[in-house]
Specification:
Layout (H helix, E strand, L loop, with lengths): L1 H9 L1 H31 L9
Keywords: Membrane, Transmembrane, Transmembrane helix
């Protein structure tokens, strides 16, 4: 158990950096999807020609 704790303490900055990086990527993905959703619903599709 002490070896695991020592390993975690040695690599804590790397683990936290990876977690923060993944969280930022996920937040950017959610933000971009919300922007796309709002843009799609703001378009007026009644002007689109129907074939």
């Amino acid at each position: 158990m002490e070896r695991v704790q020592a390993w975690l303490q040695e690599n804590l900055t790397i683990i936290l950096g990876v977690c923060v990086g993944v969280a930022v990527i996920e937040l950017l993905g959610m933000l971009l999807s919300i922007c796309l959703f709002r843009h799609i619903h703001s378009e007026d599709y009644s002007k689109v020609p129907k074939y």
